[in-house]
Design goal:
The structure is a single chain. By secondary structure, the chain is mainly α. The protein is 55% helix and 0% strand. The chain is globular. The chain starts with 9 loop residues before the first helix and ends in a 7-residue tail after the last helix.
């Protein structure tokens, strides 16, 4: 997201960041505050809630 905008670049990256945070390296976001801030802002968007990604690992 550039500033408060949402871009096409955000859409394909979101599932990868979610998987990294859930399965591959959960500590990675804590070590990258700007990425964590982007991820938190993205998750607060109404469209993200409607997307219903679901967990990669059950």
């Amino acid at each position: 997201m550039f500033g408060s905008g949402y871009s096409l670049a955000d859409i394909p990256v979101a599932p990868f960041v979610q998987r990294i945070g859930e399965e591959i390296a959960p500590e990675a976001l804590a070590a990258r505050p700007k990425t964590a801030a982007w991820w938190n802002a993205l998750q607060r968007r109404p469209a993200y809630a409607r997307a219903d990604f679901g967990a990669f690992v059950e």
